[in-house]
Amino acid sequence: MEMTGTRTVPATVDATWAALNDPEALKACIPGCESLERTGENELRAAMTARVGPVSARFSGLIRLSDIVPASSYTIRFEGQGGAAGFANGEAHVALAAQDGGTQIDYTVKAQVGGKLAQIGSRLIDGAAAKIADDFFARFAERLTPPEARVAQPPAAPPARSLWIRLALAIAIIVAIVLYWLMQSGAK
Question: Which overall architecture, per CATH, does domain 2-148 show?
Answer without folding.
Answer: 2-Layer Sandwich (3.30)
